């Protein structure tokens, strides 16, 4: 498993890295201190999860620490999934992005999620929250703070160091195996064309499946689905369909 940690504070990166490796001992954690370093890394290799602190500089010599830099990078990641300029899949960011920020008001979190984040973690959160976000991202779930989802949200488990949540399957959710596959990939932030490539089906069919899923879960868009799964704390099991051979051959960490 390979994780990219994007934050300009070396001490914070070291702390999060130690926390991750204490639970996921096989994890390879790479670090970037600015948007330029992050782009260089994501263009050269694939990641399973990306942690992004929004308040980062654009380069190692810049002092422009504003959330706009992180938001721009997040939007770039999203656009690479929706309309990649380069057919090379290594330059298309498909990993779920967990955003960290000191700001956690609902309006701000809404903006972050609409720009392509899969989960949001307030910077002042306890270690258990970060682990919960990672576990949900790896399992196809979503994590959002209580400020963003209101009452009824599921608090992080105190036993995260020992046992992750039990993944759900198609029967648990009342969906077909194909709908389940599309739901899991969509919750990870994959655009319809990317889901179609992974499952080797027509993009038009993917959009039809998504519309059907929105109806089944009583939401109107992907953001609604993300909010629903964040609120319930549900995580999904593995895909029931094989990935596209072309995408499966994408360079990955041998330890994953």
Textual characterization of the structure:
With 256 residues, the protein is of the alpha/beta class. The protein folds into 2 domains: 2-149, Response regulator (Rossmann fold); 170-248, Orthogonal Bundle (Arc Repressor Mutant, subunit A). 45% of the residues lie in helices and 9% in strands. Helix 8 (177-187) packs across helix 10 and helix 9 crosses helix 10 (203-217). The radius of gyration is 17 Å and the shape is globular. 39% of the residues are buried.
Question: Secondary-structure blueprint of this entry?
Answer:
Elements: E1 2-6, H1 10-23, E2 28-32, H2 35-42, E3 49-53, H3 67-82, E4 97-101, H4 106-114, E5 119-122, H5 127-138, H6 146-149, H7 170-173, H8 177-187, H9 192-199, H10 203-217, H11 222-232, H12 245-248
Parallel strand pairs: 1-2, 1-3, 3-4, 4-5
Helix pairs in contact: 8-10, 9-10
Keywords: DNA-binding, Phosphoprotein
Protein name: DNA-binding response regulator
GO molecular function, one term: DNA binding
């Amino acid at each position: 498993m390979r994780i990219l940690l994007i934050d300009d504070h070396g001490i914070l990166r070291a702390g999060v890295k130690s926390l991750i490796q204490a639970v996921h001992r096989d994890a390879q954690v790479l670090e970037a201190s600015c948007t330029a370093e992050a782009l260089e890394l994501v263009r050269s290799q694939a990641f399973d999860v990306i942690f992004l602190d929004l308040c980062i500089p654009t380069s190692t010599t810049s002092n422009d620490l504003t959330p706009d830099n992180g938001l721009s990078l997040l939007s770039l990641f999203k656009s690479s999934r929706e309309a990649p300029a380069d057919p090379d899949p290594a330059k298309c960011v498909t990993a779920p992005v967990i955003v960290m920020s000191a700001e956690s008001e609902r309006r701000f979190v809404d903006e972050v999620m609409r720009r392509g984040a899969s989960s949001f973690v307030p910077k002042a959160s306890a270690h258990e929250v970060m682990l919960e976000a990672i576990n949900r991202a790896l399992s196809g779930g979503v994590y959002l703070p209580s400020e963003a989802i209101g009452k009824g949200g599921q608090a992080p488990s105190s036993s995260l160091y020992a046992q992750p949540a039990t993944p759900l399957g198609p029967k648990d959710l009342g969906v077909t195996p194909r709908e389940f596959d599309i739901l899991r990939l969509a919750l990870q932030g994959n655009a319809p064309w990317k889901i179609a490539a992974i499952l080797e089906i027509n993009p038009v069919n993917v959009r039809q499946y998504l519309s059907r899923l929105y109806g089944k879960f009583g939401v109107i868009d992907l953001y609604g689905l993300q909010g629903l799964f964040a609120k319930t704390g549900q995580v999904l099991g593995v895909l029931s369909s094989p990935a596209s051979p072309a995408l499966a051959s994408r360079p990955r960490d041998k330890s994953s």
